[in-house]
Amino acid sequence: MYETNYSSVSEFVFLGLSPSRPVQDFLLAFSTVCYGTIVLGNLLVVFAVIFDPHLHSPMYFLLANLSFIDLCVSTLTVPKMISDLCSGHKTISFQGCVYQIFVPHILGGSEMVLLTAMALDRYVAICKPLHYLTIMSPQMCLLLLCGTWAIGLLHAVVQVAFVVHLPFCGPNEIDSFYCDLPQFIKLACIDTYRMEFMVTANSGFISMGAFFLLIVSYVFILVTVWKCSSGGLCKALSPLSAHISVVILFFGPCIFVYMCPFPTVPVEKFLAILDFMITPLLNPAINIEGQGHEDGSEETE
Questions:
Q1: Region 199-217 average pLDDT
Q2: At 238, is the pLDDT very low, low, confident or very high (cuts 50, 70, 90)?
Q3: In which order are the strands placed within the sheet that holds 11-14?
Q4: Exposure winner among 62, 153, 292, 300, fewest CB in 10 A?
């Protein structure tokens, strides 16, 4: 897969987020605190769902898997960035770079589908409450989870298949803190315009398709509840607002990238920080708060 005659570049050098030493010191402290909070917050959600019998429901099952994916996404890049900031040795092997591209695309594709599954769960719970336990059975939850990972794996395989055999003969500098696929492709020694288009189209198709399904599901939920009662609409908006916030945090950067075909490097770095640190940090708090409001409203009914 990584034959030497395909590439004379054995490693890549990260330029990082900033060449300034004070800025790097701030980023080191910020990323360390963020990653520690990400690990604690997401593991708390996962273990709470596993060990608390009251949380053994489809909604919390999907939420725990979302927290697991967020933890993995952050772990793939942030510890490496912290290590690079500490040592100043900002390099990664060719194989390691491909790995940093392949696995995040599995997780990213899986998270898109998982968010769609969570929207389906909310649709069934709000619009078809009498059939909720029948439709969202344990078998259905496992099927949704398997489909989530299968689609994520397929998406990543297609992406990496485009680029894994590209010839690299230098330069080998990536203006980021991780192996960003678009910048990785641009370092190839051939014209990569068509390949960049195919990679962007693949990511754009799965992200925009999932986002469209999410919007449709939210519209159906709100219209259904509005027809029933205005009071029910207020109760439904509380948990739905948490889901919508998570969707915006995740899909916002993706939509911006595909709507703006030539984003600047600083914008790409900001979006990367948002994807790998801010979103995994906020998702547990947003979801727990949203589910807490929903549980409270159910108890008062």
A1: 81
A2: low
A3: 91-93, 11-14, 173-174
A4: 300
Crossing angle between the packed helical segments 138-163 and 193-228, to the nearest 10 degrees: 160
Cα–Cα distance, 62 to 246 (Å, whole number): 13
Rounded Cα–Cα distance for residues 253 and 271 (Å): 6
The label of the residue with tokens 């389906």 reads 120
Cα separations in angstroms, 65 against 30, 76, 118? 26, 17, 10
Q: Which amino acid is at 86?
A: C
Q: Write the CB contacts of 226 (distance below 8 Å, at least 6 apart in sequence).
A: 233
Q: Report the alpha-carbon distance of residue 100 to residue 50 in Å, rounded.
A: 29
Q: What is the pTM of this model?
A: 0.86
* β partners of residue 93: 11
Cβ neighbours of residue 10 closer than 8 Å, sequence gap 6 or more: 93, 94
Could you tell me the pLDDT band of residue 163, with boundaries at 50, 70 and 90?
confident
Look up residue 10 and give its amino acid: S
CB 159: neighbour CB atoms within 10 A?
23
**What is d(CA 138, CA 132) in angstroms, rounded to the nearest whole number?**
11
Say if CB 185 and CB 195 are below 8 A apart. Answer: yes
- The label of the residue with tokens 């990323």 reads 31
Residues 6+ apart with CB under 8 A from 177: 14, 16, 17, 77, 80, 81, 84, 90, 269, 272
3-class state of residue 26 by DSSP:
helix
- Token pair for 2: 């990584």
DSSP-derived letter for residue 185 is H
Contact 179, 101 (CB under 8 A): yes
Other C-beta atoms closer than 10 Å to the C-beta of 17 total 21
| Contact between residue 219 and residue 179 where contact means Cβ atoms under 8 Å apart | no
d(CA 112, CA 255): 13
Residue 254 scores a pLDDT above 90: no
* Residue range 175-186, pLDDT digits in tens: 888 988 888 888
Which among 20-24, 26-30, 175-179, 282-286 has the top mean pLDDT? Answer: 26-30
